[in-house]
Recover the amino acids of this structure.
């Protein structure tokens, strides 16, 4: 297993650059999550409307003795 770090992205400078990069990645992920949530909400709203019921529905009950 190679853990030399050669595949990691290079960060210019030291100190806060890592924190800035981490914050930028977190912001991108939050935007992607928000867009996915909005798409899910919009797709849920595109369902067919429920059938309207009439006032006489359920008034007759068939009872066999």
């Amino acid at each position: 297993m190679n853990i030399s770090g050669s595949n990691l992205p290079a960060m210019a400078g030291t100190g806060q650059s890592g924190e800035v990069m981490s914050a930028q990645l977190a912001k991108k992920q939050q935007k992607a999550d928000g867009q996915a949530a909005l798409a899910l909400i919009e797709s849920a709203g595109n369902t067919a409307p429920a059938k309207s019921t009439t006032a006489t529905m359920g008034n007759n009950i068939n009872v066999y003795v």
Q: What stands out?
A: DSSP finds one helix and no strands in the chain. Residues 17-44 form the longest helix (28 residues). The mean pLDDT is 78.
